[in-house]
Amino acid sequence: MSLSTLAATLLAVVSIQQVRSEQRLNEQGQITDRYSAAGAQLGDSSIDVRLTGIYALQRIMQDSPRDQPTIVNVLCAYVRTHAALPAKQRPAIRHETNELRRDLGQPAADVAAALKVIGDRNPALDRGSTVDLRHTDLTGADLDRAHLPRADLYGARLLRASFENGDLRGAELEVTDSREANFDHADMRRIGLAGADLGGAVVASADLRGGASDLLRQELLEAVPNRFTKLSPRLARDPQVIQRECESDPPCHGEGAGLP
Known about the structure:
By secondary structure, the protein is mainly alpha-helical. The protein has eight helices and no strands. Helix 1 packs antiparallel against helix 2. It starts with a helix and ends in a 12-residue tail after the last helix. This is Pentapeptide repeat-containing protein.
């Protein structure tokens, strides 16, 4: 190869790299502009505009995976702001008034959309960040199949919320109002449930192995397990737990079928 040919080849390579670098900068600039526009939409007084902003953030997250942690943090903050549990209702969830117990609401459309985007993301791209939904009112929320590993839901109201087939591994549900929530077939290994109210919560076929057995036992006795609920060996052999399984699942014969 002649020197002139070599020089021309090197020049072409450098030019291609420069073009690619400029393209990346332009793309990042466009992402930044889209992000700013979506952020402004989240603060609009119109719910339709806010919904547009939420779905715009979802599209950015899909186009630019490295921005996922930031976008998830923004959406979590949005939910904490727009579905905040009033401070006076946070402590002593087990001692709510009858008026609060009759609350049959569901999340507003924008909050539901934000939860859907959060739950549908790929957690492998979280880069160590966690979903923070502490002290939120998620009454009646549809979080079926949601990806919420290590999510922090401390003190949240999850009354009649549905997490069917959801991933809640290592999630923090301490002091939550989870009455009548649906955890059917949910992966709840190593979940934190200390102080949670699981009265009437469905944990049929859920995987509850790896949690703190002493803390989980009382919560489990208030819930609705079945013979397919996966429990730690200690809980699976507990006579009261077995009795509760049989009460919830009549075909059960008291054999402690929740053994792993």
